[in-house]
């Protein structure tokens, strides 16, 4: 991973809440006792967390490693089996973080062109997913822990990403308490998709409402 600090901005409270939430089990696909996220799901999550245009995915290298004929399952015809390698660079423009990963995939189709296209696409998708797991549980990192969907990061100590957030009751400064409770726009992120319960969402909304009330009272007294 590398970073471009010139364009770096902090992760917001809503983004942090999404990233540190459990993975919704409905998003998880399974094959041969393996749990994984689909490439389209990873791309959708990148858009949800970082916005349209908030990231870029570049195929910086692709290579056909092997081509050979293999018999189809019924044995009457032959397929063209292609093995391909792809290297993908994922850049998060908001943070300046850059992740680069490689993957190898194969495809066997009667038409050599279709086999090449599918093999490269599959390798590219796998490389993107491998790069995205550095962004944590919402991008499949927890699935490497025996397929679990609970958040695997749990704590972050970076100054601008401190998590869990400080207990508002333990803060002395009213401004700090407001910042710990709300992001100032009067809205709470829709956390349902990220696995939080209605009770948790209700508690979060209550905290936010209280913070906004305190902010309004402070403004009226001034």
Unreliable runs, pLDDT <50, ≥5 residues? 183-195
Strand order of the largest sheet: 1-6-5-4
Oligomer: single chain
Q: Could you give the distance between the termini? A: 47 Å
The total strand number stands at: 6
Number of helices: 5
Return the CATH topology of the largest domain. Enolase-like, domain 1
Strand content: 15-25%
Count of the domains: 2
Average pLDDT: 84
Provide the CATH architecture of the largest domain. Answer: 2-Layer Sandwich
Write a structural description:
It is a single chain. This protein is of the alpha+beta class and 222 residues long. The protein contains 5 helices and 6 strands. Helices cover 32% and strands 24% of the residues. Helix 4 packs antiparallel against helix 5.
Descriptive labels:
5 helices; two-stranded antiparallel sheet; alpha+beta; Enolase-like, domain 1; about 220 residues; 2 domains; elongated; 6 strands; 4-stranded antiparallel beta sheet
Any chance you could write out the topology, listing elements then pairs?
Blueprint: E1 2-3, H1 13-19, E2 29-31, E3 34-36, H2 39-50, E4 55-71, E5 78-92, E6 97-109, H3 112-132, H4 174-181, H5 198-221
Antiparallel strand pairs: 1-6, 2-3, 4-5, 5-6
């Amino acid at each position: 991973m590398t970073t471009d600090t010139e364009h770096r901005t902090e992760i917001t409270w809503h983004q942090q809440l999404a990233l540190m939430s459990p993975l919704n089990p409905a998003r998880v696909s399974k094959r041969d006792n393996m749990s994984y996220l689909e490439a389209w799901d990873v791309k959708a999550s990148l858009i949800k967390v970082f916005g349209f245009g908030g990231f870029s995915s570049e195929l910086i290298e692709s290579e056909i490693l092997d081509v050979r004929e293999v018999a189809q399952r019924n044995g009457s015809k032959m397929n063209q089996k292609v093995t391909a390698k792809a290297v993908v660079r994922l850049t998060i423009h908001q943070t300046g973080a850059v992740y680069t990963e490689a993957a190898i995939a194969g495809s066997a189709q009667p038409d050599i062109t279709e086999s090449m296209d599918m093999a490269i696409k599959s390798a590219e998708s796998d490389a993107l997913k491998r790069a995205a797991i550095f962004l944590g549980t919402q991008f499949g990192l927890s699935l490497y822990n025996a397929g679990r969907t609970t958040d695997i990061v749990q704590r972050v100590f970076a100054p601008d990403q401190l998590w869990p957030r400080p207990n508002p009751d333990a803060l002395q400064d009213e401004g700090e308490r407001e910042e710990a409770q709300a992001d100032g726009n009067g809205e709470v992120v829709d956390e349902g998709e990220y696995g939080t319960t209605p009770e948790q969402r209700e508690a979060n909304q209550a905290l936010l409402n209280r913070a906004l009330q305190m902010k309004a009272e402070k403004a009226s007294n001034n």
